[in-house]
Design brief:
mainly alpha, two-stranded parallel sheet
Length: 116
């Protein structure tokens, strides 16, 4: 697939699809993830976590930790936030936080503070 200026966009590892918009979005996420925190938003089931995992693999791997905010209600906010903090302070790699939309404003603020 080509995306402007004759540049070929390759799909991220493990992902399928050849639509130009999909490939551009994946490439933009991978490029941004190499330098900063990235928020990937979209409808349920569109592949947000799959793109995050693929971008992680393209960037060279290392440890990958997925923290699901939906489990905060079961695990308790303190334990869940401590696990997230430990993951962020751990070895160089990637941390994916899923389901942030379901958190209370206070819990979301705590997560944002950790990400800063």
């Amino acid at each position: 697939m080509r995306a402007g200026h004759g540049r070929r966009i390759s799909p991220l590892p493990g992902l399928i699809g050849s639509d130009a918009a999909w490939l551009r979005a994946c490439a933009e996420i991978a490029t941004a993830a190499a330098h900063d925190i990235v928020a990937v938003c979209g409808e349920p089931g569109v592949g947000k976590t799959a793109v995050a995992v693929a971008a992680h693999e393209q960037l060279g791997g290392g440890p990958l930790v997925v923290c699901d905010a939906a489990t905060m209600a079961v695990d308790g906010p303190s334990w869940w936030l401590e696990r997230l903090r430990s993951s962020l302070d751990g070895p160089s790699g990637s941390v994916v936080v899923r389901h942030l939309h379901g958190l209370s404003p206070a819990a979301a603020g705590s997560v944002m503070a950790l990400l800063r």
